[in-house]
Design goal:
By secondary structure, this protein is mainly alpha-helical. The protein is built from 14 helices and five strands. Keywords: Membrane, Transmembrane, Transmembrane helix.
Length: about 300
């Protein structure tokens, strides 16, 4: 798709949560799970959505209260059935002490109790969570024709929890229709697929131009794995050259992917080639696997009289 046919867009700010489950919410009314930032439950329509961590903490709190209530009921029962005033007083005092110790203990372990309740909730609700996320995905796809940006934003939220090539392919297909800019909140490694996808290869090529710092080990391995298929694409050589140019940002990448870089070194922009040349000159005894010789050949052929070299 030509660049001038792509749509200029602006994404809403998105912050990746510390833990994936931070995106997950549950409806207190119907129990449906969602990863979308919606105000009301999509199933029952109630404004009863709450974070799963808060819901688990509430469940843990109820269990703690139940334990305390049980101790107090036992204490009342012991007092009621006491044979004498002294026995009733001892039972009451003992029950109060026991309840106090339980209360203090529960306060100390409250954080652990909350965490245990969260893991237990997620464990027993795995099927319901999966169903809720699939409904979220269908909701995102349903708005695609009317608002492709909103569809992408919904899929971006879901992808925190719903991993896999299916969602990634849908996101890549949407990104293919957008104009990418340096100031956009973009992702790459989260979108990598298990097999070759031309749209992903094109996206990697665009990322190499606007956000080269996003191209890291996993992306370089993907490109190296499917180098032959990418080369067969229209502008495939340009994609590979752009990716090779990003690899010379770090010496480690230049060494690991020296073979791939060497195949496109003659086409590297001058600034990338200059960086690589200086990198090799600074470490002449590294195992460059012939990349140093290719760089010397290109330097002699193209930049022999260039004062920057």
């Amino acid at each position: 798709m030509p660049v001038n046919n792509k749509k200029p867009v602006t994404f809403r700010p998105f912050k990746t949560p510390r833990y994936a489950y931070d995106k997950l919410r549950i409806c207190r009314r119907c129990g449906r799970y969602t990863a979308l930032s919606e105000d009301r439950c999509g199933q029952c329509g109630r404004a009863a959505l709450t974070a799963v961590e808060q819901h688990a903490a509430a469940l843990a709190g109820r269990k703690m209260h139940t334990r305390l209530l049980f101790i107090l009921l036992l204490t009342l029962g012991a007092v009621y059935f006491g044979q004498s005033l002294q026995q009733m007083a001892l039972c009451g005092a003992g029950g109060i002490v026991l309840a106090g110790l339980l209360f203090l203990t529960q306060r100390k372990v409250r954080q652990n109790e909350n965490l245990y309740a969260l893991y237990a909730l997620l464990g027993r609700s795995i099927d319901s969570i999966r169903d809720g996320l699939e409904i979220n995905r269908q909701e995102a796809v349903s708005v695609l024709r009317e608002n492709d940006v909103l569809a992408y934003e919904k899929l971006r939220e879901i992808s925190i929890l719903l991993r896999g090539d299916r969602v990634s392919r849908q996101r890549i297909a949407l990104l293919h229709g957008f104009q990418l800019r340096k100031d956009m909140q973009l992702e790459l490694e989260q979108l990598l697929l298990k097999d070759f996808e031309p749209l992903l290869a094109e996206y990697i090529g665009e990322i190499a131009k606007v956000r080269p710092e996003l191209i890291k080990d996993r992306t370089l391995r993907y490109v190296k794995t499917y180098e032959v298929q990418i080369l067969q694409m229209d502008k495939g050589a340009a994609i590979l050259t752009a990716v090779a140019g990003t690899a010379v940002r770090l010496k480690r990448y230049a060494l690991l992917y020296s073979g791939m870089i060497g195949r496109y070194v003659a086409e590297l922009p001058k600034d990338r080639f200059l960086r690589l040349s200086r990198m090799i000159d600074a470490s002449p005894y590294e195992a460059w696997n012939g990349l140093d010789l290719k760089v010397a050949e290109v330097r002699e052929a193209k930049y022999r009289w260039d004062p920057d070299f």
